[in-house]
Amino acid sequence: MKAGLGHIKAAQALEEYAKSNLPDIKIEHVDFCEIDPMLGKFFVIFYDITNNHLPAVWGAVYGAFDKEPVLAAFRKVDGFQRLFESRIGRYLKRQNPDGIIFTNVVPAPMVTPPCRKLFPNIPLAVVVTDYHGHSYYNVPLIDRYFVAIPEVKNDLARAGVDGDKISVTGIPVSQEFYGNYSQTNLKRKLGFNNNYKTVLFSSRLSKDFIIPSLEGLLAMDEPINLAVVCGGNNELYKKINEKIPPQNNFKLVNWADRFDEYMKAADVVVSKPGGLMISECLALGKKLIMTDPIPGQEERNAEFMAKYGYGKMAIEPDKIVAAVREMLLLPKTDSIAGHANASAKILEYFK
Predict the structure, then answer these.
(1) Domain residue spans in the chain?
(2) Domain 176-329, what architecture?
(3) The model's pTM
(4) What is the pLDDT of residues 4-24, one digit of tens each?
(5) Is the N or C terminus of the chain more exposed, i.e. has fewer CB atoms within 10 Å?
């Protein structure tokens, strides 16, 4: 479900891996909004409004529903969910699946009951795309959970999920993040023809701290290359373009089809601490400066990165510049590119 880009990217990574490596498995990547447009759009709009404009509201909802009594009371009011079971059931009957993987857990309590009635023996699984296990993930009809790290397994166990159902696999990322590449060649491809270290700054929201942060990074004593990707936000792109003049060590793009190339060319990434962004940085061994986290899951993601030294939180422009300066001096983190692919581990369950 298109509530958060990370859920989509995780599903795409599973689909991509299956098409390349598992010819006997046919994967269909489905947006829940296609199954029930009204219900799906309600959740997507709520997520977008609260995350982009009312993050404190999202944080309050996230915190409240991470308490078992609140969640249990909500699930007892199941009439709302039953309103949509017939449409979901008709869709499932047409698809006749041998298994279902949720990369966004929100639809799971609505999809699993009709699925179990129609297909009592097929496996139902959830991929947890953050570095924190929320109580909402405890969906009784789910057979298997795939999580990033042992701490998330512990979170889910505390929320009442049977530990035997939980596998620590990592979070699926695109095949583009596994394999060798030349950082020097990619820097040149992006237009940086020097030996400066490179910083990638990524944001799709227009926030007040962004332009002062960019100006501070470009004014550092030791010059850097600075690449900025605006995630398709025309307003942000226009604002930065007007405020920061063209420079040989500065590249501004509104959208990057091959965002992985910008990450590979970078020595340090500055971005929100979404679960997939973190997983991609870990896959490449890139340090992450985490800014403007959404209250709730992104704050928990940031705590994980800071705890193990993979990243640093910084909100104000001067703190962002200081954090980048500090991270550029640290030795490079080992990538996990040589480790087992999370998609391979997850899809092994369905073979």
Answers:
(1) 5-172, 176-329
(2) 3-Layer(aba) Sandwich (3.40)
(3) 0.88
(4) 678 899 999 999 999 999 999
(5) C
